[in-house]
């Protein structure tokens, strides 16, 4: 469970800092349902930009922001999502994708990092006048962590692989106190872990918020992302609709806990986890590098409830790269509208999907084909971020392959979208689930110092994950107490 041990001396300093900086912290319940947010905060948000370094934007850590860059009538609306038409997906099943672009920073990872930092802040385990929050990630999580740190008046250190997109580094230089680039690409997670251990050994003022092991990450996704997906599904399914399942690529595996929420609501649904074919860790104990930015490999995250996962789906990174151009180039749009019959209004929304969001959509297409789903079936996933974060990647592809042509659009659509097959997938049995779970031992027990007894509890203790998911009310009570001490409401 998330440690909620109190440190009263640190907490006093945290309260004083919050009072000085005008910081009020939202509860998880308010992120689930912004109707609970005080009207005076909503009124002030109307003049605050979505990415502004303003503590009021803590109240925009929700899937229900109005989809605008600044203000917006009423500040909040329905859950932001898109539904992929069959003319694009090539399958009968309905695929819904939550849209992460309308979070501050343009990515839902700002929520996961909130779930990790705030419990330590409101218990006094993190002293913002002394500690530095260290955010190791393959990209978006450290952006979210640095942003939340700035909003909460905490110092931060961002760690990410050197080969991540330039947009990430440019933005972090403006927000984080320090940026550290580790060797390699998305799949070089161990190098990130090694850097955090170096910081632990050499500095007393750092607190590591490792998204792959911090239970605040799955708690946030279970309670906030899971609830948002459930609300969308209930809204669209109608009398004959059937929720068939969800699939999420495994970065930290935080979003997988949203699948745990959905499986409790729809017990016959399936939960899939996606990864890059070029580094098939879950599928084939593999290794390598890949280009699906934002998902990490070569290990099984500590926070992944493997026992509740039904399928592993591998996605070729070439598919997501080619579709990035198809979905964002004028000739690609023209081809999809005129030759494939995709509605123009939906084509205009394709830029809402970043590279991992495209991979998530492909995972759902593969699941729809594997399970032979019909037009009454619904699959769900998330668009972690949008194409805004990958213009440099589009430019690189243009430099490598030349200007995008109608022939290239036709080839990419045929091979990398309509040509998606049910290869490189595995429906997990009890034994194969346990094989994946046991891979945690090598990373987390041997390398990261976790207790093997807890590893076994994750598998055998029926209440292990439930106890974590149920900590929301206790943490919300601590947030309310913190805000009361600050005295700004």
3D structure, described in words:
- There is one protein chain.
- By secondary structure, the protein is of the alpha/beta class.
- The protein has 22 helices and eleven strands.
- The strands form two sheets. The protein has a seven-stranded mixed sheet, with helices on both faces. Strands 5-4-3-6 form a four-stranded parallel sheet, with helices on both faces.
- The chain is globular.
- The two termini are 30 Å apart.
- The mean pLDDT is 94.
Q: What ranges have pLDDT less than 50 throughout 5 or more consecutive residues?
A: none
The DSSP helix count reads 22
What characterizes the major β-sheet? 7 strands, mixed
What structural class results from the helix and strand content?
alpha/beta
Strand content: 5-15%
Radius of gyration: 21 Å
Percent of residues in helices comes to: 40-55%
Distance between the termini: 30 Å
Q: Report strand order across the widest sheet.
A: 1-2-10-7-8-9-11
Total strands: 11
Q: Indicate the mean pLDDT.
A: 94
Spell out the key features of this protein.
alpha/beta; 12% strand; 489 residues; seven-stranded mixed beta sheet
Set down the secondary structure blueprint.
Blueprint: H1 8-21, H2 28-32, H3 39-45, E1 81-84, H4 86-89, E2 94-99, H5 109-123, E3 132-136, H6 140-151, E4 155-161, H7 166-175, E5 178-182, H8 189-202, E6 206-208, H9 216-236, E7 242-249, H10 256-265, E8 270-276, H11 281-284, E9 311-315, H12 317-328, H13 330-338, H14 344-347, H15 355-370, E10 377-383, H16 391-401, H17 406-416, E11 425-427, H18 430-438, H19 440-447, H20 452-460, H21 464-469, H22 472-486
Parallel strand pairs: 2-10, 3-4, 3-6, 4-5, 7-8, 7-10, 8-9
Antiparallel strand pairs: 1-2, 9-11
């Amino acid at each position: 469970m998330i440690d909620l041990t109190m440190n009263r001396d640190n907490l006093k300093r945290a309260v004083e800092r919050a009072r000085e900086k005008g910081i009020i912290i939202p509860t998880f319940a308010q992120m689930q349902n912004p109707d609970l947010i005080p009207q005076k905060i909503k009124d002030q948000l109307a003049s605050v930009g979505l990415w502004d370094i303003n503590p009021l934007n803590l109240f925009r850590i929700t899937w229900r922001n109005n989809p605008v860059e600044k203000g917006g009538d009423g500040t909040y609306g329905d859950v932001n999502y898109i539904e992929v038409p069959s003319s694009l997906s090539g399958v009968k099943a309905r695929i819904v994708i939550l849209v992460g672009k309308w979070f501050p920073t343009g990515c839902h990872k700002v929520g996961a990092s909130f779930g990790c930092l705030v419990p330590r802040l409101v218990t006094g385990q993190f002293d913002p006048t002394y500690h530095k929050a260290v955010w190791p990630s393959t990209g978006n999580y450290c952006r979210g962590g640095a942003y939340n740190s700035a909003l909460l008046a905490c110092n931060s250190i961002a760690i990410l692989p050197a080969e991540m997109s330039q947009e990430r580094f440019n933005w972090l230089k403006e927000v984080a106190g320090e940026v550290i680039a580790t060797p390699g690409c998305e799949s070089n997670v161990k190098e990130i872990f090694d850097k955090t251990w170096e910081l632990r050994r050499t500095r007393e003022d750092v607190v590591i918020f490792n998204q792959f092991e911090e239970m605040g990450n799955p708690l946030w996704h279970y309670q906030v992302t899971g609830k948002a997906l459930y609300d969308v599904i209930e809204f669209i399914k109608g009398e004959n609709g059937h929720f068939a399942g969800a699939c999420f690529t495994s970065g930290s595996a935080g979003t997988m806990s949203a699948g745990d929420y959905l499986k409790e609501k729809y017990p016959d649904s399936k939960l899939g986890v996606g990864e890059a074919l070029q580094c098939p860790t879950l599928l084939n104990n593999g290794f390598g590098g890949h280009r699906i930015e934002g998902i990490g490999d070569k290990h099984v995250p500590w926070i992944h409830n493997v026992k509740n996962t039904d399928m592993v789906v591998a996605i070729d990174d070439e598919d997501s790269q080619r579709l990035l151009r198809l979905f964002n180039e004028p000739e690609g749009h023209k081809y999809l509208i005129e030759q494939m019959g995709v509605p123009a209004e939906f084509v205009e929304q394709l830029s809402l999907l970043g590279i991992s969001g495209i991979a998530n959509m492909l995972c759902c297409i593969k699941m729809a084909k594997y399970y032979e789903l019909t037009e009454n079936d619904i699959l769900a996933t998330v668009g972690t971020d949008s194409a805004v974060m990958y213009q440099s990647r589009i430019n690189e592809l243009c430099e490598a392959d030349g200007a995008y042509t109608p022939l290239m659009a036709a080839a990419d659509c045929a091979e990398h979208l309509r040509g998606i097959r049910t290869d490189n997938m595995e429906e997990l049995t009890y034994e194969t689930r346990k094989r994946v779970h046991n891979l945690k031992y090598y990373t987390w027990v041997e390398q990261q110092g976790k207790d093997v007894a807890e590893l076994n509890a994750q598998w055998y203790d029926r209440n292990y994950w439930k106890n974590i998911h149920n900590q929301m009310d206790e943490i919300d009570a601590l947030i309310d107490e913190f805000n009361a001490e600050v005295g700004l409401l």
